[in-house]
Every structure is written in C-alpha cells, then in structure tokens.
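Extended Data, panel c. Modelled sequence:
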Amino acid sequence: MSGAQLLVKTRAKPQDGAANEAVRVVLAEALDCAPSQITLLRGATSREKLFRIP
C-alpha cells in the first residue's frame, strides 16, 4: 500500500514530541510491530505526518 492516509487522534500534548510518540505507539499496536520500527519521516511539528512503516 502506498500513499494511504490514516487519521489518528491522541490526547497527548504536542510538547517534546509526546504526541508523535503516542501516534507511533498506536500504529505499532495496530500493526503488531515494535514502535522502534516506525520512523517519523516528515511532519514533526505539523498536524500531517509521514511515517515509514515496515
């Protein structure tokens, strides 16, 4: 799958990367992989993010 979008909502605050980490954890649980395998490629400070998922 290429170019797919997924809406993820989190209650974590966007301070010190807490929200980005929360999204990584949600994706990892949904995809049954380790959060360390999911990499934030783009959008660290924006609402739209691009993650690399194995």
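The longest helix spans residues 18-31. This feature is highlighted in the accompanying rendering.
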